[in-house]
Amino acid sequence: MVALRYLRARRERSFISVIAAFSFLGIMLGVATLIVVMSVMNGFRAELLDKIVGINGHIFLQGVETPLTDFDAVDDRVAKVPGVKLVIPMIEGAAGVSSQYNQAGALIRGIRENDLKRLPGIVGHITLGSLDGFDQGGGLAIGQRLAEALSLRIGDTISVLTAKGAQTPFGVAPRIKSYPVAAIFNIGMSEFDSSFVYMPLTEAQSYFGKEGEATVVEVFVDHPDRMDQVRKDIDGVLGRPMIMTDWRQRNKTFFDALQVERNVMFVILTLIVLVAALNIVSGLIMLVKDKGPDIAILRTMGATRGAILRIFLMTGASIGIAGTLAGLILGLLVAHNIESIRSGLNWLLGTNLFPSELYFLSRLPSVVEPGDVLAVTLLTLALSLLATIYPSWRAATLDPVEALRYE
Prior knowledge:
By secondary structure, this protein is an alpha+beta fold. It has 2 domains: 2-50 and 254-404, no CATH class; 66-240, no CATH class. The chain is built from 17 helices and 12 strands. Helix 11 runs parallel beside helix 16 (370-396).
């Protein structure tokens, strides 16, 4: 009762309640900001892992010493390994693509129709056209942003140019060939949607002069975060010399940078909570100074030092607990509705706060991890409680005689 009464100061002592209110707001905003930022960082990692790995595979097998003409046999052996979900042989090559309106660079990927229909990044992302008859139709599947850049629609013709053409007495002649656009896909990652072009495998073998072979076999596994055992099992069934890499090696710098950024953001934003906790310290010290005569009277009436200590601990802790709970609710609400909030701000401000050209993704992702929420909550409660210890100890050790000497 006494602790809560001290928070509701009288009008002439309202500055203490003002400090308490600012401390409450600081802790609430600090907790909410931490939860939202951690959720967005988790969302970035999950989305980028899903997009990058989902379209590119988890393990990459490339032939050495001899061309990879036995890719079907490798496919059969690797597909039987426990934990392997999908095996796709491909032809990959860089090329220039153009229409009558524009031109751009692209990564041509030769793939069989059945494999393309099972490719995680493509399944459910065909926006125009169809993949039916892909192998026999001789058409290409291109990304939506590439189609927009070249002003292409289904049925339009796209020209593919590569410098590695036929050998002539005057050197290597470039090769150019035109294909109809059979399908347009939207993966949701601007870098891929603006550069990937899928071509029937047999056509890609002919175009790049790789008759009867593949340049890479991509393997998709059930658990991308647990790769080591699957790599050992695959290595044991290959039956021929091959170079094996996985998504961690190809994207190590990128995902390490994301993790470092996440950790740094956590430390920086924790300072908001720390500043709010220091406000609790200053507010309680001023409260102890103001309530010195009251403390002395309570002591002379029989209140123990422990009772005085508990009064001020409860006063400070109530600010921290209330601010933490309010921040927790606010943070979860914002984190779960971050994309709607972004869309509303875009409409209100008339600008794009999350351009996909810069951030790779077409939407602002958010994944709330219970472990992160628990860590933020416990950290804030701990800082709030620590902030109350010194002022409460000062109040408990106050000498009643000294406090009442000049009253």
